[in-house]
């Protein structure tokens, strides 16, 4: 009986399974035959039910088939975010269940190609590149010529979108003479190659295009339009554009491509000062993307979605306006869409790139407010300008800080723990990918790592949605001017923040008394002054060989940067930007001087304590301190090598005398030891070599046996009060607008270090050792890193055992402190001494009283 029941159960299960698989295919085919929003809603309901039921590989494959067709419809109807989610789920399902082993389902054409294109449309360039390279590899492996060409075309379009035209030429040139390409693909590859040559000014006239290359009529006019536009011949460009339009069918274009066509026409009309025509073109483009919106005046912000074409439209709309409020409102719409796009990204490289684009818009907003303020003197405008400056300051570090604070508040939350683990895995995989690419590993290994990154990205997006829904405190880093001014009053400080734009440097000086906004024109002279001053620190001999040149340059830059306005404040919180990130402000001179004696020069450091930060939001934030004051020291020393750090041992001994420290010396100073112990200490000190990296290699730091690269630091989880990087160039790296240098110091900030002391250039071993010894001597008593850093430089300048030539700012001003401005505390030992003396005085007083009383008693008995 039991056997019969089991057989019946098995038969029923198989039948049900077959029925479920068939039902999924039927639902998909029904939708394909009648695609509209009503059938889409029905399909989505069915999909949700199917997801809960599917078990077998056949059922999973059927669901992938359904999702690919759903994703295609969503893409065509401009529901890009939903399309991406659908394709990502299909791809993840296909990989997880290893469906390629049971079917020849064309995942490249059905899922990977449209998903890669969607990533490009929504500016998710990191995932786009990963996906496209994946399917190019798969196409080569399976000898799919058509898909190889499709991948090449889409990768070229991606590189063209982000301005990497040299890569486009390299990529397309290898395909120009390939056989077995269909006519359409060949034409597309030729045209992409020509487009990038025009962009690079390699083609300045249509006659420069070889006549042997076959180009259709539409592309001929498009090429002429692009060349004329590039050369500034706008009338001829419009003529060519209009001729090109007559050779395309608007019905054959997607809504997105048609909107972009109207945008291009609007651009041309704006350049020709045909403002009404430009406005009409933009309204047409907006109507295509938002059919229920007649023009921007009737726009409902809630109707907007993650589509980068909107940003182009709103930015151009803004340039057609005169009223400053309307202009700022339109730019605000661009910022809003930019945020919608960014919400779907997981790669920090992608977000950093977006920040750079947003800064161009921020500069325009600050300029508008600055000009309006000159006419109105309305002080409320100044804080608005400051908010635009802050908008794209260290956005990635801010986001990381918010996530870390949330996890500290909810340490047992499974969602937050999963996210933290995935972010760590993402950085570790990125590091491995960089290493494999540098080592020129096999394409299969690189493709596998790229695929893993994409899988991690998909998982992070799903988690992010759940976390945002659960935690309302996951907001931004907005603050009120009053909060900032109250903290400055408490710290007896002034805040100086720079915004380094393309046309100007804007300087904000904020104190308890108000905000001051200055504009420094960024002409060639200003740029040269800044650059020349920075290059004075390229080697030790430059300043000493021409001291008068240094003093002149240091005082000139002090005036250019308007620092006289801050001279009344003892403490300065400095937020540099752009090239100013590499200026040692303490080495600037507050007045002219003819002296060649460095210790007598009026350096800023002689009068003010400068503390640096990456954003005013970080200055305001009060981080929870790690109560322990134990120090972890890493000293590889590198004895008997050309990289020997002779005085590093003196540095270690000085630290041992002043601090409760665990030191790893010589062959104990390994990367493994550092990683194992780094999270257990409140202070980390690394005395070693470091490099800022180059165009292909990221910034890195040396341990005894191995190098640690920047992405490896990103994967650490530190709760460290202070990191001291006693090494060269730890504050230097590839520079990104808004985010700063991708340096070792930034790596530690990203990993969770609250305060960091680091160097801006290659520094002398002996002078570093002396400064560090002084730093820890001061720190052991004051527990204030900013005060100790300031005092260590003063001590160095006052030290009579150091020759004048070694007192050049090259030797002492390299170290900059980024973090909190903290007041020094009294040395506990001194407190104990005072308490002991007080107790002794009380005891003596009591003894005297007793003796006096005892004396009276004796007198009384005698009488």
UniProtKB/TrEMBL annotation:
Stored Pfam families: CHAT
Coiled coil feature spans: 261-288
InterPro entries: CHAT_dom (IPR024983), TPR-like_helical_dom_sf (IPR011990)
Chain segments annotated as transmembrane: 830-848
Record keywords: Coiled coil, Membrane, Transmembrane, Transmembrane helix
Presence of the UniProt keyword Zinc in the record: no
Listed name of the protein: CHAT domain-containing protein
Taxonomy, superkingdom: Bacteria
Domain CHAT: 569-820
Species of origin: Flavivirga rizhaonensis
